């Protein structure tokens, strides 16, 4: 049997448990928070006062934090790209109405959709960013598409989402702490609850991988090895500002996030270490010789990456993004 057919068999075997996993990791629509829970009530008499408070509190936030907020929001707003990618994964059948995996993708997307929505509205109301430039970058990111190096392989895709969901948790959680430190408790609370969603999603995708390791350990190990050897490509990697076909926007966004400690190269390594521990990579048995070598590579990788991280230098000066105009922050 070909590797593709084996993966399809495994996905079919695991599909019977998807409904229970949805109940375990996703929250019913009537119970979960909505963007309006964190934004001024446009129907209420105090709407303009609440908007004024947002604008006043926004003055206290530093330039680099605005850049990270914008980059996080744009990444969340590119959700249509992520959904279409996952819907094309082997074993995810969006044509048949009763396919469990396509149901998971739709329900996961529905939860994720709220993140970009609430951040977008907050940035708009803050009056501190150039929304038109942000909207252009968002449209470019969706229109350009991206290749995260997973092909249609569910094993590789689940490694990617396990890693990426934990990375977004780290980013939103750190932004929440910085915002709260600068007196903006509402923004802090908003980013904190977004990070909670991301952590739940991380646990879900990690469990998918755990279940695959139990039935197809060697090929799951090879998929993990492949993704970490080529490195996880962040969705924001494809950011570009208006007028630029080739942009340094992601590099500068990444420098900004590292400079203020929102997401660093060490965080990347720590996420890898957590996945190795979570999936008990050192204890998995019945591996092929090739998979054993892949396991050895993965076990040594964090230490190798730490040596490289120690040599990295981050520019001290902020890059001037079109999204955020320093003059507006001083109004």
Kindly, what is the distance between the CA atoms of the first and last residues, rounded to a whole number of angstroms?
Answer: 66 Å
Please give the number of β-strands. Answer: 0
What is the beta-strand fraction? Answer: under 5%
CATH superfamily: Ribonucleotide Reductase, subunit A
| Biggest sheet overview | none
Please work out how many helical segments DSSP would assign.
Answer: 14
| CA-based shape | globular
Order of helices and strands: HHHHHHHHHHHHHH
Which topology does CATH recognise?
Answer: Ribonucleotide Reductase, subunit A
Q: How would you characterize this protein structure?
A:
The mean pLDDT is 93. It contains 14 helices and no strands. It is an all-alpha fold. It has one domain (3-329): Ribonucleotide Reductase, subunit A (Orthogonal Bundle). The termini are far apart. The longest helix is centred in the middle third of the chain and has 31 residues, at 185-215. The chain is globular and about 65 Å long.
Ordered list of secondary-structure elements with their pairings:
Layout (H helix, E strand, L loop, with lengths): L2 H13 L2 H8 L21 H12 L4 H15 L1 H9 L12 H27 L4 H14 L9 H28 L3 H31 L1 H14 L18 H11 L5 H14 L10 H21 L16 H4 L2
Helix pairs in contact: 4-6, 4-7, 4-8, 4-11, 5-6, 6-9, 8-9, 8-10, 8-12, 9-10, 10-13, 12-13
Write a short abstract of this structure:
The chain is mainly alpha-helical.
Task: Name a few traits of the molecule.
331 residues; mainly alpha; Ribonucleotide Reductase, subunit A; globular
């Amino acid at each position: 049997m070909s590797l593709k057919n084996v993966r399809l068999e495994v996905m079919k075997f695991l599909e019977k448990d998807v409904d229970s996993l949805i109940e375990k990791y996703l929250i019913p629509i009537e119970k979960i928070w909505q963007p309006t829970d964190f934004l001024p009530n446009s129907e209420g008499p105090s709407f303009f006062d609440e908007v004024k408070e947002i604008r006043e509190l926004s003055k206290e936030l530093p330039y680099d934090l605005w850049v990270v907020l914008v980059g996080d929001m744009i990444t969340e707003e590119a959700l249509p790209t992520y959904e279409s990618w996952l819907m094309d994964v082997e074993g995810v059948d969006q044509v048949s109405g009763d396919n469990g995996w396509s149901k998971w993708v739709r329900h996961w997307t529905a939860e994720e959709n709220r993140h970009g929505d609430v951040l977008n509205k907050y940035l708009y109301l803050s009056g501190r960013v150039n929304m038109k430039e942000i909207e252009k970058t968002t449209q470019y990111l969706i229109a350009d598409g991206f290749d995260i190096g997973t092909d249609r392989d569910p094993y590789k895709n689940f490694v990617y989402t396990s890693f990426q969901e934990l990375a977004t948790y780290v980013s939103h959680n750190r932004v929440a702490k910085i915002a709260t430190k600068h007196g903006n408790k509402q923004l802090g609370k908003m980013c904190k609850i977004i990070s909670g969603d991301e952590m739940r999603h991380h646990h879900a995708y990690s469990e998918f991988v755990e279940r695959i390791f139990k039935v197809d350990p060697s090929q799951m190990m090879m998929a993990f090895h492949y993704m970490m050897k080529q490195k996880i490509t962040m969705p924001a990697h494809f950011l570009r500002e208006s007028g630029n076909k080739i942009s340094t926007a992601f590099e500068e966004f990444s420098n900004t996030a590292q400079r203020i400690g929102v997401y660093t190269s060490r965080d990347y390594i720590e996420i890898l270490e957590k996945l190795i521990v979570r999936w008990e990579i050192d204890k998995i048995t019945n591996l092929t010789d090739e998979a054993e070598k892949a396991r050895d590579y993965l076990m040594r990788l964090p230490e190798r990456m730490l040596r490289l991280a120690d040599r990295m230098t981050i520019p001290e000066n902020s890059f001037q993004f079109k999204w955020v105009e320093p003059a507006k922050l001083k109004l």
